[in-house]
Design goal:
The chain is an alpha+beta fold. It has 20 helices and 6 strands.
Length: about 475
């Protein structure tokens, strides 16, 4: 015999019972006389591991597909006697609130990011919100609090505080404070709106743009500006410069302290030296002269430099002040010459050089003259001539042969080069002294005169002395 439900063989038949067990009998009558194979054929869509209870439940309720969650569409697990509507408690809560599946919920909330939670999406559909919620102050996207299941009004505490002060959004604040820099802080902008500031605040002294420090602006950009502003009786930098235009910024590099000093003392002109009439530096304003040298001349003479030059006009222009002082002090009104050598005594005050020494110097020039006369006694020789070159001196001049000779002492003809030069420390170092020999030769050349420069070191050397003698022979005995 076989069981009517499961078709098993080899079972003990008792009391006219056609089923192998009571379980098979109950399933057979529940399923309206269907065997086990018929039940499996009708419920092929279920898993292989599905129980007979699950299969009978599907046949009773005419279920032809696998049962799924109404919210997330996952496959449901069969409980002891039936299927639930959702796969979990969270899905049941979401479904009760919205009565929509998960896919429809995501479609309606496309404006949210992909990673947004389901509780956040449910919040939007409940309250019929079709745009993303933003901060009232800065208009940034707010974050959803999953614990409270709500949005905060502001993205941070700073935004809430700033909104409480003015009750204005950030964009309106930026529009009202366009005059400020892009890098300026929101605190700075709120401060400007509170106190109705409509331009960039600037330093009251130097008019530079001020920086926002702490919670307000200061009156000046630095401590130095504040001290200048206070000490100048609340004057600007421009006003100080206008009142002290007489000071030369380029020449003396005058600072603001010096300018403020001039305004306080009511000084309207640059102080000048009473002797040389030069501008005195600010450090030496306590004195009447620019240097000790000027002070000595002014204290001794009580005369300016111009007056001294006018009273000593008969002297050349390049003469030192010491010589002018010597002539003015001794009441001399003309140039004095030596009786022997016809040398001017102007140079008496220079390093104790006297006319006697100059007369000794003329002995070397006489030696050259004696050598020329030994070659030819009838030659005309003129010493210390000043007529040919208009006041410029020629030591030896031979008019018959158109020859001139200059004997150059190293003491007087080695400016800026030789240690023994007497012109290295004097004021009248002028550029034309460098080219003095060159200029003299050209002037002689224009008048068809050959000029020979014999230096002291060349004449004292025996070899070079003989060379110069041979040169003079060839020029004279042509």
């Amino acid at each position: 015999m076989k069981c009517r439900f499961c078709w098993k063989k080899n079972w003990k038949w008792k009391n006219n019972n056609y089923f192998c067990s009571n379980v098979c009998q109950s399933y057979f009558y529940l399923n309206n006389w269907l065997t086990k194979q018929q039940i499996l054929n009708k419920t092929k869509f279920l898993k292989i591991n599905a129980t007979l209870k699950e299969r009978t439940y599907c046949i009773k309720h005419k279920i032809k597909e696998r049962a799924k969650c109404k919210f997330c569409w996952k496959e449901l697990k069969f409980t002891k006697h039936w299927y639930l509507n959702t796969c979990s408690i969270s899905c049941s809560l979401y479904f009760k609130q919205v009565n929509i599946s998960k896919q429809e919920l995501i479609k309606r909330t496309n404006f949210l990011p992909y990673k947004a939670s389901i509780s956040e999406r449910v919040y939007y559909i409940k309250n019929n919100i079709k745009e993303r919620i933003k901060c009232k102050f800065c208009w940034k996207n707010l974050l959803f609090d999953n614990k409270k299941k709500k949005y905060n009004k502001f993205c941070s505490n700073s935004c809430s505080k700033n909104f409480e002060k003015l009750e204005i959004t950030k964009q309106e604040i930026l529009k009202r404070t366009k005059f400020l820099n892009k890098k300026s802080n929101i605190k700075e902008r709120i401060y400007c709106i509170k106190f109705n500031i409509k331009n960039q605040p600037k330093c009251k002294f130097c008019w530079k743009e001020l920086k926002f420090r702490g919670h307000s602006y200061s009156e000046t950009c630095s401590k130095s500006c504040w001290l200048y502003y206070k000490s100048s009786n609340w004057l600007n930098k421009k006003e100080i410069l206008d009142k002290t235009k007489f000071l030369n910024w380029k020449k003396q590099n005058i600072s603001l302290t010096e300018r403020i000093y001039c305004i306080k003392k009511n000084i309207t002109r640059i102080k000048k030296c009473k002797f040389c009439n030069k501008e005195i530096s600010f450090k030496d304003w306590y004195s009447d002269t620019c240097s000790l040298i000027c002070w000595n001349y002014y204290f001794k003479l009580n005369i300016t430099k111009k007056e001294l030059t006018n009273k000593t006009k008969f002297l050349p222009k390049n003469i030192n002040l010491d010589i002018r002082y010597y002539y003015y002090r001794n009441w001399l009104k003309w140039i004095i010459y030596c009786k022997k050598c016809n040398w001017r005594k102007i140079y008496k005050s220079w390093n104790n050089i006297t006319c006697k020494k100059k007369c000794i110097w003329n002995s070397i020039e006489n030696e050259i003259v004696e050598y020329i006369l030994s070659l030819n006694k009838d030659i005309k020789i003129i010493q210390n001539d000043r007529n040919v070159l208009n006041w410029r001196e020629l030591d030896i001049y031979l008019p018959q042969h158109w020859i001139a000779i200059e004997y150059n002492w190293l003491m007087w003809h080695s400016i800026w080069k030789h240690k023994s030069s007497k012109f290295n420390n004097y004021e009248w170092k002028v550029e034309h002294l460098k080219y003095n020999h060159y200029n003299k030769t050209i002037k002689c050349q224009n008048k068809w005169i050959k000029l020979f420069h014999i230096f002291e070191n060349e004449w004292l050397n025996k070899l070079k002395k003989n060379i110069w003698k041979n040169i003079l022979k060839k020029q004279i005995l042509k």
